[in-house]
Structure formats: structure tokens, C-alpha cells
Amino acid sequence: MSVNVTVLMSVYNGTRYLREAVDSILSQTFRDFEFLIIDDGSTDDTWTILQAYARQDSRVRILRQANAGLAQSLNNGLALAAGEIIVRMDADDVAMPERIARLLDYLEANPTIAAVGSNIQYIDDSGKPTHEGHYATAPAEVVKKVLEGHTPMAHPAVAMRKKAVLEVGGYRPAFAYAEDYDLWQRLVDRYQIANVPDLLLKYRIHASNVSNVHAYPQMLSAYVARLSAQERHKGNPDPASTVTHLSISVLDRFEQDPHQLAVMLFHLTQTAVANYKASGDPDLLDEAEQCLGRLAATGGRKYRRLARMVAGHRLQQGKLGHAAGHFARGLIPTQHVSRAFKAASQLPADTLRNRRLAAALVHGADPEHLDTPPPISLDAEDLRQLVHQATAHAVLPAVLRSLQPLATRVSDFDAATSDAATQARMLATHSMMLRGFADALLADLGGEPVTLIKGLTFARTIYPQPQLRPFTDIDLLIAPQAKPRVEEVLRARGFAFAGDFHDPARREDKWLHKQNQTLLVEVHGNMVHAPSLQKAVSLSYEDLATVGAGTPASHLMIATMHAALHQYESLRQVVDILQAARALSTPADEQKMENLVARTGGRLAAVAGLDLASRIFGEPRCREIARGLGPAQHGQLARLLINRNVVLSMTTERRVYYTWRRQGFRELLKRGRFVSAPSQAEAALKSHVPSTPQLNQDQ
């Protein structure tokens, strides 16, 4: 009998309650299911416990991965699940024996329902019942609760149709700690959801619950999810569809009533302060300060009391907060911006607390250091942390190669790196699969003004070995006239337009393969997607066509622009700049780069990126090219804002300390201006000569 049900659990350091949770699933009255359990980078005995269960019961499938958070873990589980029905389960809860059977009966009797939950019995950390949680049952009432901003069902009590969840995009990792609420909002856009009145789950309340530990990010995620839903209901694109990390600045994407915005910011500030008092996490005070800056700008009257509270906590820390939030809302006069940034930059911050590991990460990420171990001593625990950071920064293949000489010198080397090595092989396999699809697409598009950019192009042209530059999607940059043919070819190759992600103003379309949702093609009309930046910088197919899309200058322009637009969120983006600079070797190449910089408005992006790569990797060629391009407006301020810590902090808990720097750099990009050259089509129209765009296809 084929497996139609997958019980999906993600666990992180769940030793204390894990056995009780797993046993409650394995003893269900309904027994024909697979139990997929993902260990999300646990550091306790979780993996050992799971291995024992997998040996004892063939229904148990286990997967171990680097810590990615609940939303990404569940997305990974959805991709691997054999079942058509996904039954959620948390590692600290207890399922009633008839839970799965009852939920399956309901779904079978109600084929229009995409997800069904149940009432729950709250228990304390010892398992003692405290009270019950009751939810609306009728679909209409459940939808009403969602639209009113209430949580309509308990996430670990739910059974869902996998097809429906995938059709709305799965979980969005940016909505950390409220990923379920965001999913319900998107599900009710298309489907009905409901609850059965039975008590089918014991929901454990303890000090580590998300609502206790992460109250502030949970509230922010819930607010943004609700605002996004309101925009979708108006028929507008979802402003948060492209967000990869939620911060308070995301609220700027929404048009809101000033009073409602002030109320929202007030509650967020209060929650951040209360969360800080409970956890002692200083990052929360940074968030509170940024909320205060926006609250003051709305004219809210209550912000001064909250400001005194934040200042009091800062004084207890022995420092006052930085001025970032105030600058972001224009509360500091423009002439004092540089002075404010200089003062703020004095805050003590270290992205990777262990500087030795930071040095090892940078050393290993450089493709010229293959098979050359870092010039520092590392033990097995150092290696575990290092490969975790390398994975997060997307430089794992190169770092693993640099560590190979240590295999005979470090005890437990294989144990420390085996999971990472497996992941690197999976990345390589996925990249190879994408490479085949990309080649087929380009063959079908022969003669069209279309070119590959970023991942596959970089892997083939500027890296010494393609496997050192894995990629997760196919990026096509196209001229406007090629769009109908590109869409025709994509459909013929089994791809479907992902309308949920579409925003015409961003000049980017996403296409997912119908049979394999991990195959993604992004079609770019311009590399600059954010409307707020489109008046300042631009990089189109026609821009690249002026120098040739396969030239070293085009690679460097793409690398520097891509990294700047993403505010240097990963080390791999800087490595791309490093490798592209090394490949730009002739005066003719340098002149082409100058032409592109002048045409696109990308001088600040180019100079800042090259300077950053020079400072991080010590590559003289980066410095030479940057100097040859000459000074960029706001270049000194950009250099002050963006440094190695900003890049390396993105995958650590200290990233919030640097959010204001990235926001400040983005503001500098907005201040630039470019004058677009006439396109070939425009020039041809003016001279009454037929336009014949030339294909610059980089394979």
C-alpha cells in the first residue's frame, strides 16, 4: 500500500520531551504513515535518540541538517514527504491515540478543506493539564477569525493537504515564529480551513516556547503577515513576497493609516522592551530603538515614555543606543548624517565571537586556497562551527576543500564534517540538474536577446572549478521583446508561472517546475527590482549588450550590483566580486567596466563592493580596479558603513546590530542618479531602421 500520510516533525535540542512526543505518534490507532523527523542542527542527544527510533520502526525517516529554523525545516520536510496528507507534530507535545484517524476521516469527508486542526489540552512542563484551548470549527467562522487577526488553529494539531500548502508557497522562512499564522492567511486566500471539536493534542507550555522566548519577532511577523494579506485582498501584489529577513523596515513597504501605524509601533516597542527584560538579549533594544524612531515620526505621543525606558536599559548596559533608527526616518538633519554614522560605528560588535573561526571562514572561502588549510589550529568543535557558518554563507564547497589536509590531523574530523559533506554533494547534484535545464532553455531560445546571469554563469567562467559555486535557481536576464518567447519555452519545458510572487513593478517573474518545486527559474527584466532604487541604478540586458554579456566586465558589473542590492548579506556575494575582479585582466576589460558603470549608475555599487572584497580577502586586483574607476559619490560613507563584520554577521544572532548599516547603505544607493542610454529598439525607431538586438548568451 502506498504511503498517503506523512507525520512531519522538526526538532532542535528536544531531548527532554522528544521520546514522549515520538511514542505518542507511533502508538496511533491509524498506523499506515511515514514519520519524517528533521533534526535541525541539535547539539544535545536528539540525533542519537532519533537513530534509535529509526532502527526500531521502519515508519520513521530521519534527516539531520544544519540549523535553519522551523519554517525552512518544514519546507525541507514538505519536499521530502511521501504523503499527500501532512500531519504536523511538535517535539514537545503529545498526540492523543486517535488523533490521526480523526483528522483523516474529516479530510476524506470534506475534500474542499485544505487544513484541519483540533481543540487542544494545555499541559505544563511536567505534563499536568492546565486548561483547554477551543477553536472555531465551521470553515466560515475560522476564516473570519483569520481575517480579524486571530490564530485560527494550533499549528502542531493540524493535518494539511500537501498540494494546497505547496500551491500557496509553503512556509515563508522570513516570518520566523509566526510562520503558521502567515500560512493560514495565504491558505484562506484560496481554500477553506476548519477544526474538529475533539481534544486531540496535549500542547506543552514551558519556558522555551516561542511565545515566551521570541515574543517580539513573533509579533512583528504576525503584523506583517496580516498587512500582506490585506494587500492581497485588495488585489495588490504582496509587498513581503520577496523579503528574506523581517525587520522593522519592512513596514515601510505598506501604506498605513498613521494612527494604526503608531499603535502598531507602540505595541512592538513595548514587546521588544518586555522581551529584553525577560531574555536579556541586547539585540532587542536595537529593535526597540528602531521602532521608537518610526513611532516618533508618526507623531505618536506615548513614545517619550518608552524612550526613557529604553535609555534606562542602555545606561545599565553602559552605553547609549546608536542613531540608526532616527536616521532611517530622517530625524537627524542631513548635514549630521556622517557624524551620526561615525558615532554609531564605535559600538563594540563582533559578528563571529570567535575571531579565529572568522579568519578560517574567510581563508577557506577564497577559491585560491583550495587544499590549503587555514593557518590556525582547529579542533573538532571548531570544525563543526566553521562548516555551519560556511553553509550559511553558501561557501561550503570551497571551505571543505580547504579543510581536507586536516583530515589526518584532527580527531573526529569525519564526524565533524560528514553532514556538511553530504549537504555539499546534494548542492552539487541540484546544481547539475539545474545546469541541464538551463542548457536546454538556452538551446530553445537561440537567437533571442536572453542571457544567463549570476550562479551558473559564474560557476562556469570565473571559478576554477564549477562545483565551488553551487546555485539554487536559474537566472535569465532578458530584453522586453523576448518575454513572450521565453514564457512559451518555459511552459513547454514544464514550468508554471508562480503568480503568488509576481509584482510587475519589480521587473522579475518566477517560474516553478510543475513536477519538481525545487526547480526555479527567475526571469529578470532588470537586475534592479526594488521600485525605490530604479531611479538610481539599472542593469538590463541592453546594458550588458553594449560590452557583451559574456565578458569579464559584465561578470564584475553583475557581481558588484547583485551584492550591493542585497546589502552584502552573504560572504559568497563578496567572493563573486573577488573572482570577477581577478578575471578582469586587460585595459580593454577595464574600459568596458567603466562604460558599464557610467551607463548603469552603478559606480557606488562597484567601488564599494571592490573595496570590501579587497579589505576582506586582501586581493590587490580589487583595489586596483576600484581606484581605476575613481571616487564614487558617498563612497567614503559607504566604506564606513560596510565592513567584514557586516557581511559575517548576517548568519549570527548579532545581525540586528548591523541592520542600520545595511539600511544606511541602501539609502546611499537611492541617492544616486543615472541617465539611461536609449535602447537599441528606441534608437532604431528614431532612425526608422529595423531593430535587430544581438543575443549575448553566456554559457
Characterization of the model:
The protein is globular. A hairpin with a 6-residue loop joins strand 13 and strand 14. It has three domains: 5-209, Spore Coat Polysaccharide Biosynthesis Protein SpsA, Chain A; 256-344, no CATH class; 355-680, no CATH class. It has 30 helices and 14 strands. The chain has 699 residues and is an alpha/beta fold.
The tally of structural domains comes to: 3
Helix content: 40-55%
Number of helices: 30
Number of β-strand runs: 14
Radius of gyration: 26 Å
Give the rounded overall mean pLDDT: 84
**Biggest sheet descriptor:** 9 strands, mixed
Low-confidence stretches: 318-353, 674-699
Distance between the termini: 46 Å
Shape: globular
> Which structural category fits the helices and strands?
alpha/beta
Features:
single chain; 699 residues; alpha/beta; 5-stranded mixed sheet; 30 helices; 14 strands
Q: What's this model, at a glance?
A:
49% of the residues lie in helices and 11% in strands. The chain has 699 residues and is of the alpha/beta class. It has 3 domains: 5-209, Spore Coat Polysaccharide Biosynthesis Protein SpsA, Chain A; 256-344, no CATH class; 355-680, no CATH class.
